[in-house]
Amino acid sequence: MSVLEIKGLEVQVTTDDGPKDILRGVDLVVRSGETHALMGPNGSGKSTLAYAIAGHPKYHITGGSVTLDGQDVLAMSVDERARAGLFLAMQYPVEVPGVSVSNFLRTSITAIRGEAPNLRTWIKELKESMNALQIDQQFAERSVNEGFSGGERKRTEILQMELIKPSIAILDETDSGLDVDALRVVSEGINRVRATGETGVLLITHFTRILNYVKPDFVHVFFDGRIVRQGGPELADDIEANGYAQYTAV
Amino acid sequence: MTAVTEHEVSLVPATDHSPQIRSLDLADFPALVGREEEWRFTPLARLRGLHTGEIGAQSPVVVTATSLGGATFALNGPKDVTRAGFTDRVATFAWTQIADVATLTIPKNTQVAETVHISIAGTNGVAFHQLDVNVEQFGEATVIINHSGSATFAGNIDINVADGGKLTIVSIQDWEIDAVHAGHHRVRLGRDATCKHIAVTLGGDVVRLLPSVDYEAPGGSAEFIGLYFAGAGQHAEHRLFVDHSQAHCRSNVVYKGALNGDGAHTVWIGDVLIRSNAIGTETYEINRNLVLSGGGRADSVPNLEIETGEIVGAGHASTTGRFDDEQLFYLESRGISADEARMLVLRGFFEDLLNQINVPEINDGVRTRIEERLAGIR
Ligand SMILES: Nc1ncnc2c1ncn2[C@@H]1O[C@H](COP(=O)(O)OP(=O)(O)OP(=O)(O)O)[C@@H](O)[C@H]1O
Ligand SMILES: [Mg+2]
């Protein structure tokens, strides 16, 4: 049982015109076994929240705290956060030329589990996960994300989540750019991880489409760097029908 | 190419990129100022006088040959006066400084099964050396030359592969961090002869190698593979010259280098000249560089000069990539430490080249040494 606790988080980025405030006091608690949907207009700071939790060097924390089971996440390096149980499926997964998917995954799993996996069981585990996500086995030998289509990248992110089994997973618009079949396959992958009850999911999305497959326990509306409204799944339907204006009017 | 005697200067037909002077007499080379096309990337001040002749105390390298099999090795053979002049001032200087010539011979029709090992070990002084590797008709061998220790070293290797001969020759520059190494590696190929020249440059303050090939008859095939790693402050320079002067010959150049740390500087020059009579030529050259961290600089200049259209194919490519912060973040966000991440990227970068080198005796060793270099070990 893990708890990610975000309290009063304030984040800046450095721009050519000096520092710019993006997050203005975010409060959120995600426990393993729970699924939270985070919805909000473009530019409201959703990815910034995800990156700040993962420790991207571009984002500077100017206030607040983030803890995982009481441990200070903000004091950890990026890789330490991952080993502590945090996972971020990125909105724009990065290409790493020259590094094969299989090498990358084996190195990652070795780091996360603290020991190299048994080769035979590992190959089987990888194969099964790839099959379940309908990723061609050939992708194992391709360079990480290089030349992958948008949808292929998103599947590969979920593949990583399934293998890593994080205690808290942040999925940043994993559903964007997926065709109907891919959306179902990816949702099933997310649900397999949820079914273990050991992973808490923070699902950042613009669409209720994915929420029909991945049923959230909580929905949060994000606007101008903070959560402005919380509720149940009905909130998502309301947003779909009426837009954000009702929550964001000042 | 015809050999010239010691005091003749032969002027090679002037082209943009082929050398202008061939001589064994140092007086034929003007003093260097550093602005010369072929020296403009080199930090002359760090050559410890190899370029001016104002050198410190000499202390010869220790040269040993092992695992000779059917090959023969003469450590202190006589110095001849009839070889082709060098095209590089420092190479010529080395020639004027040596008293004898070491020669490895692969006799006619002999396939040397074991890999021949030659060690050239520096002894902390200035040293000059001339090694000849002669593969006689239809001889075959694999030779590994390992440079180690510390030295200010100018050493040339003349590689002659006679008709139908086959040679794989590996030159490993695994010097201590303060070594200086300048060398001309000249390959000459007879009819249907094949040479695979592999340069692995890992250590040294300044390494400047000039691998070249001359074809003496049709049907020759030359492959040049290079792998280099420059850490902070290191200069690793490889200047290739492929002179297609015969019909129906092939050449393939693949060099890859990684830079890690501030002041790392690599230079790769690939001059390929296809002369008007060299019909049926097939040539390709590629150089790839990877900047892993810091403000290193990779200079990469492919030059392809074609004087006849009747060729099979000619091409070149050059890329320099950087392992950037976004890639690092991505790998780190999967639990991989920054050091491991660079290792992963470096291994991936060199893997296909190591497969192409395909000399089992060195592959593992080179892999290990690259990783040690990345980890900051010498
Ligand atoms: N490096 C930067 N320089 C300037 N502005 C930045 C920088 N990084 C982020 N921002 C700004 O911060 C705001 C929040 O960006 P963020 O990517 O977090 O939005 P988002 O909610 O994820 O949007 P979307 O729904 O479009 O993905 C945006 O206005 C964006 O332009
Ligand atoms: Mg976003």
What does this structure look like?
The complex is a heterodimer of chains A (250) and B (378). By secondary structure, chain A is α/β, with parallel strands linked by helices. Chain A has one domain (3-248): Rossmann fold. In chain A, 37% of the residues lie in helices and 31% in strands. Chain A contains nine helices and twelve strands. The mean pLDDT of chain A is 96. Chain B has one domain. Chain B is 14% helix and 45% strand. Chain B contains four helices and 20 strands. Chain B is globular, with a radius of gyration of 20 Å. Classes of the chains: A alpha/beta (250), B mainly beta (378). Chain A binds chain B through residues 54-57, 77-79, 81-83, 87-88, 90, 93-100, 103-104, 107-108, 111-112, 143-144, 160, 164, and chain B through 290, 321, 325-327, 329-338, 340, 344-345, 347-349, 351. Bound molecules: adenosine-5'-triphosphate and magnesium ion.
- H and E order of chain A: EEEHEEHEEHHEHEHEHEEHH
Secondary-structure element string of chain B: EEEEHEEEEEEEEEEEEEEEEHHH
**Are any ligands bound, and if so which?**
adenosine-5'-triphosphate, magnesium ion
Largest sheet of chain B: 9 strands, mixed
Number of helices of chain B: 4
Unreliable parts of chain A? none
Query: Based on DSSP secondary structure assignment, what is the total number of beta strands of chain B?
Result: 20
